[in-house]
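Quick one:
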Amino acid sequence: MESILSSILLYFIIWICIYVLTSNLRSKKSAKLPPGPYSFPIIGNLHQLGEKPHQSFFKLSKTYGPLMSLKLGSKATIIVSSATIAREVLQRHDQIFSSRAVPNAAQTLDHHKFSMVWLPVSSRWRNIRKLCKENVFATQRLDASQGLRQEKLQELREYLRRCSVSRKTVNVGDAAFTTSLNLMSRTLFSKDFANYDSNSSQELKEIVWGVMKNLGVPNLSDYFPILQFVDLQGIKRGTKYYFQRCFDIFDDIIDERLLVRGQSETKKDDLLEAFLDHTIKHESEFSRTDLKHLLLVSINFFVCQLNFMNDYVTSCATGLSESRDLPIFTQSCRVYLN
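Output:
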């Protein structure tokens, strides 16, 4: 029995090696790529990434230029390290580069079939993009969010003041995350999801952190697509778990909002209200499933802001604790608000 299992494992390893090597040969013949470092068989340039890939890319760009090619496993990858070239790729030629490889985790629950981020250029993609442009990125919405940011930072300041008076130890990272989470939930749903003095919001914090972690961690299945069906790191299983929990919460919030809308003509000034109006108006083209995936994309958008705000507020608070200079902290917060 052991010999049979050993033979199967050996054949499987040989098959993977042949697949990766032939993929490398095909990619070299099929495209003329920018300059880049030598890539080893099977692993490509994975060994050159390090713990902080963005820093590794920057160092490599000093040798190979702002536009270079790397082989990440069996995937040929083009790296842009210049603002000028990035503008060409993301603005002037955005439609050419909008269709790209979909990460394995993003395929969970068919998210890539509904998400503006991963959909190929099509009428469906244009409609969702227009909806986001008119609501998420509208100038009026962005201007209004400044007042909300001021309100949430004022709440954070008041919480820190209370902790100071009561001599209570503060976890600055958790406090900053609570502030960011409430900023996101107020923009999307007109309600606060977290509370500084309560653990009742711990579940939602766990879900948001879970989504961030599973979508951000390097995945072997992306570098070696042949391993996708195995899910060696359990990333897709984890992503499915957190996505489903998100969708369950969305269902409850949507049902609650529809009930309120049925009882009153007064509407909330948030993204959910705008998305619901669009769903009802274009029911044949935009379903409830589309709505939930769009909310998930919106949360991912705000997650980027969560990361930025957490780092910014934490660094400001750390600087305050070291310098004991309140004006410096206040000025830093004003810089963020503007």
